[in-house]
Amino acid sequence: QEQLVESGGGLVQPGGSLRLSCVASGFTFSPYTMRWYRQQAPEKARELVASISSVGGTTIYLDSMKGRFTISRDNAKNITYLQMNNLNLEDTAEYYCNRITDRLPWGQGTRVTVSS
After folding, report:
1. What pLDDT, in 10s, does the model give residues 42-88?
2. Helix (H, G, I), strand (E, B), or coil: what is residue 89?
3. Are 30 and 94 in contact (CB under 8 A)?
4. Mean per-residue pLDDT, 88-113
5. Shortest CA distance to 93 belongs to which of 41, 29, 23, 24?
6. CA gap 5, 23 in Å, rounded
7. Angstrom distances, CA of residue 17 to CA of 1, 7, 12, 87, 112
8. Residue 6: beta bridge partners?
């Protein structure tokens, strides 16, 4: 069964850091470009946060995250990471990962709450 499982979220104070992980299983991970998304509220649309190609080329899509967020991957472990530094209140959201093609059903995501 093809699956993506996100983890690493939590409650953090403004200025803090978190590293999110997305573990892939049930398919050959390395050829896929992987993406992180966020959804700030159930009634809001899911936004594209970052993308990483099979060979490690990366893009951060939201200007507010450039310089603070880094996407990476470990093809040996089938994991995509999102390193989040200097977090602020606006980063509070549910974070999801998915592959760019043949997108899988959305997982449960991992909740990031930034609060003092």
Report:
1. 999 999 999 999 998 889 888 889 999 999 999 999 999 999 999 99
2. helix
3. no
4. 95
5. 41
6. 5
7. 32, 14, 7, 6, 10
8. 22
DSSP letters for 19-70: EEEEEEESS--TTS-EEEEEESSTTSPPEEEEEE-TT--EEE--GGGTTTEE
Q: How far apart are CA 114 and CA 47, in angstroms?
A: 18
In the 8-state DSSP scheme, what is residue 90?
A: G
Per-residue pLDDT tens over the stretch 28-46: 999 999 999 999 999 999 9
Are 47 and 39 within 8 A, CB to CB? yes
